[in-house]
C-alpha cells in the first residue's frame, strides 16, 4: 500500500527544484580575487528528497508491471486478453496455448477449444454447454461448479482436473478421454462409465480404466 500513498507523500513534502551553490567574490585590497563557494543548506535536502521521489516512482512502475493480476486482467501468462466473466459463446480458441487461463464464470457455449493447451486453466462456475474440448490438454484444469453438459471431450486429457461441486458431464462425448486422478462424484462416475470407451492417443490409457469402472 506504500505505492498508493506515494502521491500524498509527495504533495505534502513538495519536491522542489534543487538550489545551486552560490558564489561569493569578495574584493581584495591586494588586487587578488578570492572565490569562496558556500552551500545552501536546502541543496542537500532537496537532492535527497528528489532521490526519494524518483525511487518511489520507479517502485510503483515495477509493482504494476510485475503483478500478474494487474498485468493480464483476468487472462493468463499465455493469453493476455480478458476471458473471466465474459460471454465467449462460439469463440474459436482451437489450437491455442492458454495455460492457466482464467475463464471463471464465463459463458462458453459452443466455444471451440479443440487441441488447445489448457493446463491449469480455470473454468470455475463457467457454462461450457456444447463446447468442443476434443484433443485438448486439460491437465489440472478446474471445472468446479461448471456446466460441462453435451461437451465433446474426445481424446481430451483431464489428468488431475478438479470437478468438485455440481459439475455435470451429462450428454458429453468422452471417447478416448483420460480421467486419471479426477475426483468424480459417484453419480457422475456411474453415468460416465455407461458411455465410456476408447483409448487416449497421448497417454495410452483406456477411458474406462481411468474412470475405475467396474
From TrEMBL:
Signal peptide: none annotated. One of its GO terms (cellular component) is chloroplast thylakoid lumen. It comes from the Eukaryota. Coiled coil: none annotated. Gene3D superfamilies: E3 ubiquitin-protein ligase SopA (2.160.20.80). This is Pentapeptide repeat-containing protein. It comes from Cynara cardunculus var. scolymus.
Amino acid at each position: 500500500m506504500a505505492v498508493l500513498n506515494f502521491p500524498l507523500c509527495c504533495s505534502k513534502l513538495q519536491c522542489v527544484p534543487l538550489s545551486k551553490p552560490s558564489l561569493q567574490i569578495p574584493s581584495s585590497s591586494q588586487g587578488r580575487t578570492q572565490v569562496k563557494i558556500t552551500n545552501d543548506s536546502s541543496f542537500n535536502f532537496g537532492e535527497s528528497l528528489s532521490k526519494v521521489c524518483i525511487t518511489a516512482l520507479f517502485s510503483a512502475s515495477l509493482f504494476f508491471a510485475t503483478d500478474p493480476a494487474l498485468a493480464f486482467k483476468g487472462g493468463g501468462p499465455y493469453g493476455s486478453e480478458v476471458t473471466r466473466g465474459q460471454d465467449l459463446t462460439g469463440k474459436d480458441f482451437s489450437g491455442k496455448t492458454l495455460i492457466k487461463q482464467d475463464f471463471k464464470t464465463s459463458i462458453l457455449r459452443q466455444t471451440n477449444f479443440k487441441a488447445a493447451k489448457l493446463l491449469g486453466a480455470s473454468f470455475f462456475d463457467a457454462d461450457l454447454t456444447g463446447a468442443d474440448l476434443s484433443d485438448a490438454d486439460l491437465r489440472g484444469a478446474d471445472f468446479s461448479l461448471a456446466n460441462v453438459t453435451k461437451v465433446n471431450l474426445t481424446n481430451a486429457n483431464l489428468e488431475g482436473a478438479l470437478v468438485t461441486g455440481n459439475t455435470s458431464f451429462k450428454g458429453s462425448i468422452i471417447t478416448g478421454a483420460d480421467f486419471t486422478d479426477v475426483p468424480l462424484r459417484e453419480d457422475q462416475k456411474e453415468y460416465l462409465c455407461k458411455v465410456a470407451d476408447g483409448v487416449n492417443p497421448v497417454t495410452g490409457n483406456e477411458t474406462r480404466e481411468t474412470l475405475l469402472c467396474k
